[in-house]
Amino acid sequence: MDKISLKKLREASIAEFEEANVVWQAVWAALAESSTETVTAVSQAVEATLAKASTQVALNAVCP
Is 10 a residue whose pLDDT tops 80? Predict the structure, then answer.
């Protein structure tokens, strides 16, 4: 992988981390008073979505 691709991947990873952090903060704030079952279901949905987004960001960074 060349330096430009590595730089793009690093930048995308940082942006993805920041976005994921915002999502998690919002989820936990919204679910602070919810049941354990609701929190678990939402957590799993968010994790699946973030995993899919992570794959897409990495692909976009490597193959623009």
Answer: yes
* Overall domain count for the chain: 1
Task: Give residue 17's pLDDT.
Answer: 86
Sign of the dihedral defined by the CA atoms of residues 16, 22, 26, 27, in that order:
positive
Look up the domain containing 19 and give its range.
3-62
Distance between CA atoms of 7 and 58, rounded to whole angstroms?
12
Q: Measured between alpha carbons, how far is residue 64 from residues 4, 13, 28, 39, 44 in Å?
A: 11, 15, 34, 36, 29
The model's pTM? 0.46
Structure tokens at 32: 């602070």
* pLDDT at residue 62, rounded to an integer: 61
